[in-house]
Amino acid sequence: MKNIKFTSFIFLLILSLITCNQKAQSFTLSYNPFYASDDEIISKTEKNSENFFYNYILARSFQNKKEFKNAILYYANSAFMSKYNFSLKLFPQPVYAFLNSYSSKSPYYDDAVFAIASIFYQYNEFEYVVKFLSLIKKDNSALYRDSILLKSKAFQRLKKYDQSVRVATELTNIYNDETSLGEIYIRLGSVYEEANYNEQAINSYLFILKNLPESWHSEIAIKRILYILSKNEIPIHDSNSIAAICEALIKSKNFADAQKFLEKESDNQNKKLIELKVRVLANISLNSALAYLKNLQDDPDYEKYTLALANELWNKDKATAIAIYKNLANSNNEEINKRVLQRLAFYYEERSNPEMIHYMDKYISLFPSDKISGRFLWLAGRYYLKINEVKKATEYFAQSVKKYPENFYSAASRYWLFKITKGNEEEYKEVLADLAFFTPESAYTIIALDDYSKKFQTDELRHLFEECSQKKQIKEMILYHSLLFMKEGYNKEWEKRISQINDSTEQYSNFNNFYKKSSYKTFASARLNDIEKYFAAGDIDSINREITIIQKSKEAEIDLSLAMSRLSSKYNCYEYSVIYSLRLLELLSIKENISLFEADFSRALYPCAFFDCVKKESQKNRLSPAIVLAVMRAESNFNHRAISPVGAVGLMQLMPTTARGIAKQIGITDSLNLQDPCTSIKLGSYYIKWLYNLTKDSTEKMVAAYNAGIGNVLNWESRFQDKSMDYYSEFIPFNETRSYIFFTKKFMIQYSSIYNFGKGD
Hints:
By secondary structure, the chain is mainly α. α10 (198-211) packs antiparallel against α11 (217-231), α17 (318-328) packs across α18 and α21 crosses α22.
């Protein structure tokens, strides 16, 4: 297969370590450590080796399996570049002496020390935990933060409360990200509580409620505050503190306690407290809430309080909430008007209620520059198409295309506008050129272009591209380039065409150079360079730990997404490769257009994941690898541990009962691990083929059945028997399944284009 050099889970790593008198070392793993089970890692990795990298990977797996002695031994033997001792006595003193000895440290030294300290903490060796953690280099990493927090815990267990508070408080001078602050102040609150410094404990927890109200730490903080107050008479008079407490209580649905706090507060003019009282009463007694609100009619913020009431009722009494929203729909407050009209429009659209048109039209009239207006034009046209008022549908689609040519939803409007008007070939070509130029990321665009490409031979398209190039017809050049890319993928002809297009697609040529060559611009660069060692080891926990402390400025987020996309692609962390590649495009405001991206980025966006397993099972079931990869990307985004709310498991998101039935069909008698990548791919591929057979090789119906069940698809077949497949895909009753069809078809086409599946090896 052209342009693909995959080997069967062979993970080749060149880890270059530049130290005094140390040569670059290289290591080879026979598995991908991101996806291998602990048992596989332990069975396939060399033991007692003078290789700190292998030893670090082994130590993590032993720790995961709670084989702590082996974990300590291998962590200790991952700490140095060339010093090893597999006869080490696994008691605190000899391990500490080994780690505190002089030798060139490996990149995993601090990680190993922290892990060993964490294990000895579980064995109540608190004095030694403090000693171990003092070996860790002071820097601004999340690892250092966690080491100091663990040291604070050890001091607490030793009843050395002042030292526990001191070391934790010092962290506030280094870290100001939300995750770190939450961890630090929860730690401080815990120490103060145990030491019976209850006011300081409450103040620590209040810091979280006031500054980090959306973090998970706030759930702990409010529970601890309530507990302390239940045991101690500590007055809280500050209105801001009461507001923060009540906000957290409402979030945790503890309305009774929130009401008690509000009743104690004498400041009747505090607008935040008034709004909170409305929200609390909405959940306790609607009549009381309405009576209280009535007394506020002369307040300038009356509409704001009324909106708060409706929002609070939304999940428990939609009928009353809708009535309130309708009363607010003529508000002079622009922000209130926006929020109310959006909610009403979407509410009625979800129910195919014609009232949606009134609120959508009003929104479009009042907020013509808002991108939601473009979406509403599409949805209004779609509604009229569904009830067969084609003229009205055409009017809305035409407005969508004219007023919002680059809006994401204008692609759907263009697509259906052409289907309705049944334009001639020239009109069709113009629509396709607009789709390729304005909305290259849309599934409607990709599907339409794929259909159109089948009408041409490659030589014809090359000729048409050259004609348009000579005439400087940029949109048409991009159209024919896109069609050729679908047929040929990345080759020398692609490079030649890109050189002709680049002057007119500067944004994409700049992005390609940026992705290939750009260095990191912000203070986060040191942290981002450091995390490569965790990618090499498949250490997803440490990766996640370190990236949480990166500040949320746009520049830092761009650096983070660039680094994560590159590293995830390089080390085959498929899930993060997709997530951060998409995030990078979003931050840079670049639309996905794989025909204009260079291959490295397209392959990061659409990784050829678990390819040996995919290729084997595709061939066995006579499927294109593209459909298996597309379903996998749509179902789990390559998260092999994914479990859906309804219980579907693994890469291919199979229900356990379905998986057991498939296993029986293909003769698997062993117990199933649906989180094993190859097991999931084996069963999922068989299921795809089975559904293809039942749906007479219809990709749309197969995909719908995979998502919604074959029973629903058979019902829809009779309902839509006289409709086109386009209509079927657009109007099946389940919105999730509808989106799933379009996205899976798009992914399948993109995979075929990037990797030339089905076009010769």
